[in-house]
Design brief:
- By secondary structure, this protein is mostly helical.
- The chain folds into two domains: 76 residues, Helicase, Ruva Protein, domain 3; 35 residues, no CATH class.
- The protein has eight helices and no strands.
- It starts with a helix and ends in a 13-residue tail after the last helix.
- The model has no long low-confidence stretch (mean pLDDT 79).
Length: 126
Amino acid sequence: MAEIGNRTKIFPFDGVADSRREFIEWLLDQCSDEKTSPEDILQPEAIELIAERSTTALRIHEHLAKVLEPGHATAERPISAALVESVLTNDHSAWVVSITRHGYDVRSLSDFMMSRRYNYQSFPEY
């Protein structure tokens, strides 16, 4: 059994942690027209902001979807960092996930605040 540890090879798995900006540019490049560059869709500052706020590939995809919808609705091209900031600051799921991860749900919040559960009906269930 002691030999197993000696034969173990550790592979680093950082995912997209070190290359989030490149991943966003690659994703936009793959999903857009051949003539369209990622900078035609999002300003470089907006790409940097999304890369800074996203930790996983799934969050990058989610943030891009949340940003591209209002960008398309307002016909803003390229999408500015100000629009990205306004969309991502309204992202309530980030704090809800954090609160839920620490063990707080509707029942525990209502007990803590000494109020009734129906006061927290707008609290999303995850």
